[in-house]
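Sorry, any thoughts here?
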Amino acid sequence: MKQTDIVTKVLETVKHKGADAAEISYAEGSGISVSCRQGEVDTIENNNDKSFSLTVYKNGAKGSASTAVVNEDSIALTIEKALAIAALTAPDEAAGLADKDLLATDFKNLQTAHDNPYEPDTLIQYALTATEGARAEAADKQADVVVDEANVEVGDGYAIYATSDGFLGEKRGSNASASVVAIAKEHGEMEREYWWDAVRDYRQLMDAEIMGAKAVGRSVAQLGSRQVKSQQVPVLFDPAMSKTLIGHMLSAISGSALYQEASFLKDDLNTQLFPEWFSIQEDPFIPGGFGSRNFDSNGIATKPRTLIDHGVLKGFMLSLYSARRLNSQPTGHGGGAHNLMVEAATTADLVKDMDRGFLVTSLMGQGVNTVTGDYSRGASGFWVEDGQIAFPISEMTIAGHLKDMFKNLRAVGADIDRRSKIHTGAWLVDGMTIAGD
C-alpha cells in the first residue's frame, strides 16, 4: 500500500473512532556514511528510518502518539494511544488544525531531490582523495599533520503531512555532506581543525583535495596560539560564525519564545535593530535551497517576505499554535525559518577594514541568553594588527549584548557562505569586549 493510502486510511479510522479532527506527519529516510581514518576505511554505515506521528483532537483536547515501526499493528496501537491521551488531556483553545484558507494549494517543484550515489566505492574514493589532498598540503607546508578523519555521506528523505480536513502535502529532499579533520603538531602543541561542505546534489560537493588542504591549512594556522589582554575592540565573525548571530535572532523572534515572554526582542516589532543598509530576505522557493518548502509543519502555505527591512524588524516567525496563543496570524513558520539571505553592500577585505581586532573563526560554549540578550562565548581565531593577520589566538571570551551587536554592525563581507539555509558573509561588529590574559 502506498504511503499516501496508509495516511488517508488512518485519518478515516480515527474519525470513525470519534475524533473531531486529526493530523499525521509521516517521514522516511535512507542514507549511507563512509568514514576514513588516517587513510584507511574506518566505517561504512547504512540507515533506513521511518516515523509515523498522529495527533487527534476531541472536545478541544489534543492527544499525540508516534511510532518508528510502520506496520498495521503498530499503527493501530498508535491510534489507540493518541485517542486515550486526548481523553485525559485538558482542552486547549490554541490547539487544532489550520483554517483551510491558510493551507498550501500551489506545490512548486523546488528541486530539492537529486539522484545521489549510494555506492560505497564512490564515497570511499572521495574520502581517500580528501585525505591525500590534506597530506599533500601538509607536505607543502612542511608541517607535522595527522588526518584524523575524512567523512562523506548522502541521504534522501520523503515526508507527508495530511489532515482529516483533506489536506495532503508531500516533500522530498536529498543531501550530501563531507568533512575533513586534521591535527597539526609542533613543539608538543596540537591544534585540531576541520573543513566541511554540504549540498543537495552530491555532484556539487567541493573538490575533495581542496577540502583536505583547507582543513590542514586551518589547523596549521592555529599553531602557536596565545591570548591577548582584555580590551574592547572590533570583532570580525567569519561567515560560519556570523550565521550563529542570525540564529540567536531567529530564536528570539520565534512564536514559542514570544508567547512565553522569553525573548529580548518581544517588544521590538517594527523597531530599528540593524543599520539602515542591512536587510534580510526570506524566500522558501529557492530551487534546491536547504530551507525550501511549499508548506510548513501545519500545512500552511509559505511565502517570501522581508524579515529585516533596512535594519527594521518587520515580522515574527509564528507557527499555528504560537499565533493563536498571541492572538495573531500564523506566518508559515511551523518548523522554523526558510531560506534567509542577507542583503547589504559587501566589503571584500574586512580584515583590512577592521585594522585592529579579533577575527573569530571558532566559537565554544552556550553563553547566549535569548531572554535577556546577553552574549558571552569562548572563541578562537586570529589577532589582526594594521589590517593584517598577526598571530593566532585562543581561549578567549567575547562578550556583549545582542542588540548592541546588531546595532554596531559595521560591515558585511562578500564571502557568502551558502552551506545552510542562512546565506551571509562575515560580520564586522564594533565595540565588543574580549577577555583573555
About this structure: Residues 231-435 form one domain.
